[in-house]
Amino acid sequence: MKKQGRNIQNFFYSQYFSDGLRITFGVLLPSLVFARFGHLETGLTLSLGALCVSGSDNPGPVYHKRNGMLVCNLLMFVVAIVTGFARMNVFTLGTEIVTFAFIFSMFTVYGNRAASVGTACLLIMILMMDKALLPTQVLGYSATILAGGVWYMLLSIAFFSIRPYRAAQQALGENLMDVAKFLRIKADFYRPGADIDENYHKLISQQIHVSQNQDAVRELLFKSRMMVKESTHTGRLLILAFVDEVDMFEAMMATHYDYQALHQRFEKTGILEQMGKAIEHVADELDNIAFAIQSNTRYLHLTDLNPELERLKTKIDAIADANKEVSTLVLKKILINIRNLNQQVINIYNYHDSKSVELTDAKNDVEYSRFVNHQEYDPQIYLDNLSLSSSIFKHSIRVAFVCLVGFIAAKTITQGHHSYWILLTIIVILKPGFSLTKQRNYQRLIGTIGGGVLGLLTLYLVKDSTALFIILTVCMVGAYSFQRVNYVVSVFLMTPYVLILFRFLGIGNVVEERILDTAVGSAAAFISSYFIFPTWEFDQIRKNLSDVLVANINYLLKVAETLSGKNINTTEYKLARKDIYVKSANLSAAFERMTSEPKKRQQHLKELHKFVVLNHILTSYIGTVASTLLNKPVDHVHPENVKLIKRAINILNETVKKVHNDIPEIPKLGAMPVTVIPSPEATMDSHLLKEQLGFITKVSGDIAKITDAILV
Length: 712
Hints:
The chain has helices at residues 2-13, 15-36, 40-54, 62-86, 90-105, 112-128, 138-162, 166-188, 196-222, 225-228, 233-254, 259-266, 271-295, 306-322, 329-353, 379-384, 391-414, 420-429, 434-461, 465-482, 487-504, 511-531, 537-563, 570-594, 605-631, 639-659, 684-710. It is mainly alpha-helical.
């Protein structure tokens, strides 16, 4: 119950709820104000412009949001004018729908923000299809839509100017909660009777989530001049907390053990279960700090986990004393890792709780701008993708064709008063990949049917206008709050909000029409994704495999250069680390999407799953070695270690060539220094390093074998 209560609190402090409130206020206020002065029609048009532009108000730095919404407003104004005149003839309207559906779907080549601008333009086109306007009214109506869009843009910019750090705090807090969940999954490996394979599946799924959200936080923090260049106290502390969070996540990713062997050797002693609980307690503490950052409140009750860790140390010593033949080195390593995680959590707490300027002077050696991707908007990118070899081009053709089919169906079969819902459903549901379209299709249908039932019950039971308006407002906030979190809930709440709105506008019961049009649009989108230029994940998987292998090679090259005596700065290591985690998350996401495709399209599913797991293990071991070398650089060269890592690089290099012929040339490792200490003392650290490098070579060989099986 306590955890459920915290989850509810988290939601109300989240960026999603803030977005819901902002969008609802921006959309609702023009209608309310103008209705008060007897100009409801003008108010609704302003609200329409605000609603469409709000779709392009994606998370990110304020100047990116401003530029995106500015372009969106200008394009929407043009689309509104064209649609206002094109709708006067069914053939010109059909031509416009096909043309604009293709043009704006191609915006996806420029990334998510541009794609949302394209969707907003299609949305205004669809919502104006049935708007009866005289030729003399088109420009005025389009200008009113533009005014509504500009109003929302100014509102959004003002919101982020007044509270410039709020979005970053919310995003960082949510990301920390994701990492805490990842840590709890790691703790499950230590539970008695743990299903290791199933746990790996959960771990990899959560890794995708963490990686995607980390990119969102990087956008907010590292692309904001106020946070990085001006070195404001609050902004710098947020950056330092995020850097430590990423380092902590790397430490979690880098810790890998043979959990099967651990359970066989130590499960009966009870030490593994106690370790799992200790890890969970670290995750709980991280959750508490995440909530404090997200809610912008002080967290004063930092629990001291040191006594629990001391008890674990005592238990490990007792196990060693009881059985001299069993090595407890692995247990000691786990304990050290838990201590390190606990210390990193304390560091993040100190950043959040501290008012000291001294902390802002730390870690200035990292070049933050290199950690974010910079999207190019060169028109040549658009032109280069006008080819059947481009998946976005094929998707855009599919969208244009299905929109034409939906338009014809709206004019001939359904002939409802709001038949634009068919096209609206197609635009929202149809995605480049089959699995994403299938998922969105299911969510849209379930949400619409459930929301329709809720809307009918609400209209039947509630007659008071004030009560209905309150319900409408609550549904609006909920619908816009959940649109990026849970699409089923978003549609479930949006349907009654639309039905209540139509009641206020004097339009009769339209629930059957909405469900019918949604079903027609869903069917058209789903069938087209299967038959018209279908995009199957296995057809794209070679690119994901080669990306992951190249990222592993580049990461290993940094390790190899350090082992051979070259100094590599922290930024280079962290860039290589970020690249491998992003590419691994992309591969895991592609694999998950493949599992929802038709069975006959799921080629080599078992082998791909094994590749994903082996890649996770390989990345973990490389991360362990890299972290060790960063903390304690080598003082002399061990030729055997260099040979081992070169062997691993060569194995992966040969594997990449089999997967993808058109990859860029992978950098070669330079000649090894000749000055080598002849017989270095065989310390425990050097022995452990050699063992880890040997295992990296072995896993690289296993990856090569499983890749051959996938390519058969």
